[in-house]
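Archive transcription. Copying these from loose printouts into the bound notebook so they stop getting lost. Printout 1 of 2:
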Amino acid sequence: MDIPEKESTLKKRRSLSFRIAKWWIPKFFYYTSFFIFGTARKKYHGKENFDQLVDNSQSIIVACFHQGILFLPYLLRHDRYGKRIAMVSTSPEGDYIADAMAMFGQSAARGSSTRGGKKALQVMKDMLNEGHNHEKAHHGLITVDGPRGPAHKVKMGVIKLAQDTGLPIVPFNWSAKPQITFGNWDQTILPFPFSKISVAYGKAIKVEKDTSDEKMEEIRLELEKQLKNCLDIVKGNSTIN
């Protein structure tokens, strides 16, 4: 059963200040993304792990740490990637994100792990499974340690989503020089315009339907290891295997 929206939340969504913010914040994020990420010089590591799947119209789940969330809509903005779906909070602030994603041609499965998250995961599963009946690939975009951490700790939701949909998980992370690192729980990163961005992709991870709980935990740890390795690569602390 759905949790009814609080009156205070409804009141906020009806307020003039919220409606004004909902109009300009997504547009600001969209155009600023092109200025910041569009002017950056980009270097890719292990991109064949991603390209060999999407170039063959294979639907996938793209997984990264919440720290790198700002680059995700821009990185996967091209329609050639098919339908792209991300989990977004049901909060009023989530409305800004959903509207910004729509400007990038992406869809939102609304919810979070703290309120309605189980429903959102089910919505995302249903949306991804629709891809089995379409020629156009359907990709899930997941920040595996969101929405509130702990940072760099993969949660089981992405593993269960891969099991239920049959889609492979492709991990990636990125870093930039120079960049701003915010002081929030995930230490969100934002490059300067004309920066150097390094992006690393890990190897695709498949989760079979009959995978045991013990094996699911092993896969979760493997994904966490690959994501941390990607982070080491983009920071220059490791090399691609």
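Printout 2 of 2:
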Amino acid sequence: MTAQIDAKLAELGLELPQAAAPVAAYVPVVEAGGMLHISGQLPFRDGAIVTGRLGADCSLDEGVDAAQRCGLMLVAQIKAALGGDLSRVRRIVKLGVFVNSTPDFTDQPKVANGASELIAALFGEAGRHARSAVGVAVLPLGAAVEVDALVEIAP
């Protein structure tokens, strides 16, 4: 599966970033009971966090792109946690998508599709997941989007 995901990334013109180190007192991934619990991942472009607030200074397209970049970071964290072996992924169970948005912005599900569609494209049927898409007043470091995940893995 790792080779398939690498090929799909290349086909999409994307590449996985280096898995980001935590910015506070937590770990990026916890493995427990056959599941990976992945801490919220921020969107990075050219080594910098994508910032902004949807409905104010960040467009819907920029939000979708930011969510996709969060999805790339999720996959990078999964790959790092599994020693590079993405074939251990059985199912992407759930994504939690947090969108830095104004009170009148209501397209959080459309923003979240940036991450969801990437994960489905990379993992196929195993990438079809449950999801939350929530608007929030602010995110760490001014990020436009943050995404966390729950992933079932093989031993």
